[in-house]
Amino acid sequence: LYDVVKHSKPDILLGLSGIGKLFTQQVVEEMSKYKEVPIIFPLSNPTDRAECSAEEAFTWTKGRCVFASGSPFKPVNINGKTYYPSQGNNMVI
Q: What secondary structure letter does DSSP report for 71?
């Protein structure tokens, strides 16, 4: 996945794989090099199958991402700022 992101420079990571932790720090940070506001939608559920967590996405993008998941995640606090993850059903998105 890292090689694909590095070469294609996508605007969005759309997770429908059911493979937990597929969106690694390396993958998300690579995408963030090219996109000011990366879109990260780890839609697989239950939570342990999500491609990444809200905390990981917000931390690795320094709070710059648009995040929606198929599973609920708690708000994330980074340097005194709170980020609220959205939840979106993969059929709706």
A: S
